[in-house]
Amino acid sequence: MSDLYKSLKKILTRVRATPFHPQWFVYRQQYQHQLAIAKVLQGKILDIGCADQPLRPYLPQDADYIGLDYYSTAVNWYETRPMLYGDAQALPLATESVDCVLLLDVLEHLPRPYDCLQEIKRVLKPQGILVLQVPFLYPIHDAPLDFQRWTSHGLREQISEQGFVLKEESQTGKPLETAALLMNIAISKTLLNWIKAKHPALILGIFAPPLVLGINLLCWLASYFSPEDALMPHSYRWMLEKRE
After folding, report:
1. How far apart are CA 172 and CA 224, in angstroms?
2. pLDDT tens by residue, 200-235
3. What CATH architecture does domain 40-174+233-242 belong to?
4. Does pTM top 0.85 for this prediction?
5. What's the count of helices (H) and strands (E) in the chain, helices before strands?
6. In the chain, where does DSSP find H-type helix?
7. By CB count within 10 A, which of 7, 25, 146, 209 is most buried?
8. Distance of CA 40 to CAs 115, 138, 173, Å?
9. Where, residue-wise, is CATH 3.40.50.150 in the chain?
């Protein structure tokens, strides 16, 4: 049964750019988002929580990239090799030594998130850029290291107090897209739990692929004809500048 579990995870990895994937609304515009982020980066770039460094191929050729990750996370969880091991809440870099910082889906995993923002402000040069991305309506992940969520209003207030100026703000997920994402994650997690427990209800798993596909396509089509709405995005992304 464990082999079935692993096989399903591999299949999902291969189809994550298609509406057959439960998290299609996370992955379907990932390439465009990576390009948009890379456009604002230059000079010495610090990527905190870099994992497998997905943004590195999109950066300018003359960029001085530093991928940093926490040792136990990189070694024990993701089996990746960053260029530098370190704690995001106590960065092992000199003051005013980097031009840009990436903090993508990392802040929610830190027990002292505002210490991290203070450290980023310290290592950034004057008018340096921070690209910050955090989830909002998204399930607990990487437990037990998942500590908080913010509304855009709450985080904007904290960012200002930490010494950053908001230059650009974007959100991902119209209401129906986020609802579809959460529903499909719930369906998939229930199925995986049945597999682990060898529960007889596992037979219902045959309905999961068409159900996920139908939910994704229906909500995508309805959202296509819907106006932008800030009610329930699944993530936020900000471009911030260090205040003089």
Report:
1. 14
2. 999 998 999 999 999 999 999 999 999 999 999 999
3. 3-Layer(aba) Sandwich (3.40)
4. yes
5. 8, 7
6. 2-14, 24-27, 30-39, 71-72, 113-123, 152-161, 175-197, 208-224
7. 25
8. 24, 26, 22
9. 40-174+233-242
